[in-house]
Amino acid sequence: MKKSLGAKVLAFPAPVWVVGTYGKDSQPNIMTASWAGICCSKPPCIYVSLREATHSYHSIMARKAFTVSIPSANHVKEADFAGIASGKDTDKFAKLGLTSIKSELVDAPYVNEFPVVIECKLVNTVPLGLHTMFVGEIVDVKADESVLLENGKPSIGSVNPFLYDTGQMKYWSIGQELSNAFEKEGKF
Amino acid sequence: MKKSLGAKVLAFPAPVWVVGTYGKDSQPNIMTASWAGICCSKPPCIYVSLREATHSYHSIMARKAFTVSIPSANHVKEADFAGIASGKDTDKFAKLGLTSIKSELVDAPYVNEFPVVIECKLVNTVPLGLHTMFVGEIVDVKADESVLLENGKPSIGSVNPFLYDTGQMKYWSIGQELSNAFEKEGKF
């Protein structure tokens, strides 16, 4: 018998992604989002859900583009700060000592110090209530060579992304490999 | 200097959620989705992205409802199987020895053996290409009492959800608590 907890966003796990945009004066800005994920394989799409009250919301609306830079666990404090301060009155790149790189493919900046970045053009805007989903088609993924395995794909262990725990409002690390996915043989 | 990997869904981390639906003959069915996440706080909403080729896609279209049951790492094999076999020709609940519980709130079943379940009514359908996003408003979250902390919220460590690694197509466990989120004082 399960206990009812009410209509709340208690879902695990949520990613911690840093959304890069340009503001009105082409000021590079970042904000952290955990209402975010992959939403289509072909075309490859991810989304971030932002509140209209945020600076980044209006930047995405204006520029029709955003990036996602995936922080490693050693940047948990920077990511947390980027989710609290506003680009309206704070140059978060400068404050955090992070380097803004202008994407050559979309009208948005990304974070050089984070190991994987995803460049997106806005293809869908879905207002849902407090949050609006911005669906971006992935134009390119870029990664530090240090996190790539021999097959050319990034190693999640080397990227070392972290999670947001919606229950206790904490950040959690990833753990260890459990098994391959799509194992068709001999399980049941 | 980052290396370009192309336009691919290489984003970390992705959740592993099990979507519960009723098919044509009210046959309870589950399928595993990692293109899934939280997308709005008010009203509380999550989404799952499914291919039209799946049985579950048509069930959600017909019933306007779905559940998400969050498996623990000890059910990684069951979750993997539920993402491979089709409800068209397989009774996955029976095959996996899992128990289907009929939601009293929405027209969909959930998995009794998984510690947290989320009951959703369909509020938005967003076709994107190979995948269609189904946005569900959360009507209730239910959890086993064994995973609840004193504040009444589930412990991510006790739920022990796991992740999908889009790079190497493997499942990964969660690790450890890193820090509180929304720490306003004294970092920068």
What does this structure look like?
The structure is a homodimer of 188-residue chains. Chain A is mainly beta and 188 residues long. Chain A has a single domain (14-173), classed as Electron Transport, Fmn-binding Protein, Chain A (Pnp Oxidase, Chain A). Chain A contains 4 helices and 13 strands. Chain A has helices at residues 55-63, 76-82, 92-96, 156-159, and strands at 3-6, 14-15, 17-22, 28-33, 36-40, 45-51, 65-70, 100-102, 109-111, 116-127, 131-143, 162-165, 170-180. In chain A, the strands form 3 sheets. Chain A has a 7-stranded antiparallel sheet. The first copy, chain A, has a 3-stranded antiparallel sheet with strand order 2-12-13, with no helix packed on it. Chain A has a two-stranded antiparallel ribbon with strand order 8-9. In chain A, strand 3 (17-22) and strand 4 (28-33) form a beta hairpin. The model of chain A has no long low-confidence stretch (mean pLDDT 96). Chains A and B meet through strand 1, strand 2, strand 5, strand 6 and helix 2 of A and strand 1, strand 2, strand 5, strand 6 and helix 2 of B. Strand 11 of chain A pairs antiparallel with strand 1 (3-6) of chain B, so a sheet runs across the interface.
Biggest interface: chains and residue counts? A-B, 99 and 99 residues
- Helical amount among residues of chain A, as a percent range? 10-25%
Shape annotation of chain A: globular
Structural class of chain A: mainly beta
Number of helices of chain A: 4
Q: Which fold does the CATH topology of chain A refer to?
A: Pnp Oxidase, Chain A
Order of helices and strands of chain A: EEEEEEHEHHEEEEHEE
Instruction: Please report which band the strand proportion of chain A falls in: under 5%, 5-15%, 15-25%, 25-35%, 35-45% or over 45%.
Output: 35-45%
Mean pLDDT rating of chain A: 96
Going by CATH, the architecture of chain A would be: Roll
What's the CATH class label of chain A?
A: Mainly Beta
Counted up, domains of chain A total 1
Low-confidence stretches of chain A: none
Strand ordering within the main sheet of chain A: 4-3-7-10-11-6-5
In CATH, the homologous superfamily of chain A goes by the name Electron Transport, Fmn-binding Protein, Chain A
| First-last Cα distance of chain A | 27 Å
